[in-house]
From TrEMBL:
It is found in: Cell projection, Stereocilium; Cytoplasm, Cytoskeleton. This is Fascin. Keywords: Actin-binding, Cell projection, Cytoplasm, Cytoskeleton. GO terms for molecular function: actin filament binding; protein-macromolecule adaptor activity. InterPro entries: Actin-crosslinking, Fascin, Fascin-like_dom, Fascin_metazoans. It comes from Enhydra lutris kenyoni. Its main location: other. Belongs to the fascin family. It comes from the Eukaryota.
Length: 492
């Protein structure tokens, strides 16, 4: 049975890109390292760990090998060490343009080079010793202020972002990290960018770009003037402060952003906990009490629904559904059946949830009819980033088709209508399917796509005709998968 995990801190993984645009790679054979790969895949993914000695040094661990980067006194580098030793310790020296210089702490030399000619023997920093940090995690997450223990969210009325929320609830808590010109932008749920003076702007201008720094596993965002983002004042307004070194006030955690959904029953009303512990379909508008955090157990593929009042949906006596459980158990797990534009939910007693005449939900049905079907709408992804097994989905250059194997990503806009989603890309063009499984991104009219949340953090996208979108060897997005698994599942 799954454990409770509403707030999971993301393990920060990244790639290091050299001056020629190639990624630092850890090879299986001989545990050698090179900078030959043009894109960010498993072998190019690294994890930064603090030095156990509590000093300023850090360790670079290969994500796929589980071994540590090391540099010997003669400059030879490898990724062989199973446990970090003296030669594995590096100092990260951020440069004004956002890149990093990596210096061996015990030997004082800089790490760099090209292709398979990497070494850690340079006495000074040149272009060959500079590395761009490219995050390998999915870029949509929640941002938690370490000092205030409050989440950053969009304050639309004040036209700012602030760290003043005790829960990352609703669409305004979604933050998208956008990679631009070797730096990162913080993008709000309405697609605006945060400037260092706290203003929100529509373009990723230089004042809205930040250099990432890591300290004790936390993130800091340094602006073009060398100052760091921090929550300021009683309202926790997010803007660059005076500090030129990151302290606790300037540190943030990234947390996984689980899907938040609303459900609409056959009476066209929203499922809600507004009027007490009973889960009922009795509201005409969607607010916090109608929003539920949906978590999918990786083993059983069943899901839980967590309410804004602090309780999980749970099966109680006589089939009733209450939002009162404080722990995940068998009675809080529901099986989702994907039925085109509708879903049906089966409780642990083997019966389907239905809407009773008074609007309350109960698991008392043996078959699925109109009263057992619900519209399920994802609300906290108004902008969407998709990543498959081979990379991110991105517009193909000079084409109206889409790549699925890119290191960089495009942000797409979602709209929703009657159980289906419409996806809009660059220039306002809509996604649509063509003949022989092709997918295009310049449609004048929207086409409906069905989202099925199949695994934790992953969804399948179903098109008309019942096929699923997939990646593949060609690197093109296709609409010809028969089952929602493997290359047909997308991180979102």
């Amino acid at each position: 049975m799954p454990t409770n995990g509403l707030h999971q801190e993301l393990k920060v993984q990244f790639g290091l890109v050299n001056d020629t645009g190639r990624y630092l790679t850890a090879e299986n054979f001989g545990f050698k390292v090179n900078a030959s790969a043009p894109s960010l895949k498993r072998k190019q993914t690294w994890v930064l760990e603090p030095d156990p000695g509590q000093g300023c040094a850090v360790l670079f661990r290969s994500s796929h090998l589980g071994r540590y980067l090391s540099a010997e006194e003669d400059g030879r580098v490898a990724c062989e060490a199973e446990r970090p030793g003296r030669d594995c310790r590096f100092l990260v020296l951020p440069q004004p343009d956002g890149r990093w210089a990596l210096r061996s702490e015990p030997h004082g030399r800089f790490f760099g080079g090209t292709e398979d000619q990497l070494s850690c023997f340079a006495t000074a920093v040149s272009a060959a010793e500079l590395w761009t940090v490219h995050l390998a995690i999915h870029p949509q997450a929640h941002l938690l202020s370490v000092s205030r223990r409050r989440y950053v969210h969009l304050c639309a009325q004040e036209d700012q972002m602030a760290a003043d929320s005790d829960r990352p609830w609703g669409v305004d808590a979604l933050i998208t990290l956008t990679f631009r010109s070797r730096q990162y932008c913080l993008r709000s749920c309405d697609s605006r960018y945060l400037r260092s003076d706290g203003r929100l702007v529509w373009e990723p201008e230089p004042q809205a770009r930040y250099t990432l720094e890591f300290k004790a596993g936390k993130l800091a965002f340094k602006d073009a003037d060398g100052h760091y983002l921090a929550p300021v004042g009683p309202a926790g307004t997010l803007r660059a402060g005076r500090n030129t070194r990151p302290g606790k006030d300037e540190l943030f955690d990234l947390e996984e952003s689980h899907p938040q959904v609303v459900l609409v029953a056959a009476n066209h009303r929203y499922v809600s906990v507004r009027q007490g512990v009973n889960v009922s379909a009795n509201q005409d508008e969607e607010l916090h009490h109608e929003t539920f955090l949906m978590q999918i157990d990786q083993e059983t593929k069943k899901c839980t629904f967590y309410s804004s009042t602090g309780g999980y949906w749970t099966l109680v006596t006589h089939g009733g559904i209450h939002a009162t459980a404080t722990q995940v158990s068998a009675n809080t797990m529901f099986e989702v059946e994907w039925r085109g534009r509708r879903v049906a939910l089966k409780a642990s007693n083997g019966r389907y949830l239905c809407m009773k005449k008074n609007g309350q939900l109960a698991a008392i049905s043996d078959f699925v009819g109109e009263d057992e079907e619900f519209i399920l709408k994802l609300i906290n992804r108004p902008i969407l980033v998709l990543r498959g097994l081979d990379g991110f989905v991105c517009h193909r250059r000079g084409s109206n088709q889409l790549d699925t194997n890119r290191s960089v990503y495009d942000v797409f806009h979602l709209s929703f209508r009657d159980g289906a989603y419409q996806i809009r890309g660059r220039g306002g063009g809509f996604w649509y399917t063509g003949s022989h499984g092709s997918v295009y991104s310049d449609g004048e009219r929207p086409e409906d796509f069905l989202f099925e949340f199949r695994e934790r953090g992953r969804l399948a996208i179903r098109v008309r005709g019942g096929k699923y979108l997939r990646g593949g060897a060609s690197g093109l997005l296709r609409a010809d998968a028969d089952t929602p698994a493997g290359v047909a599942l997308w991180e979102y």
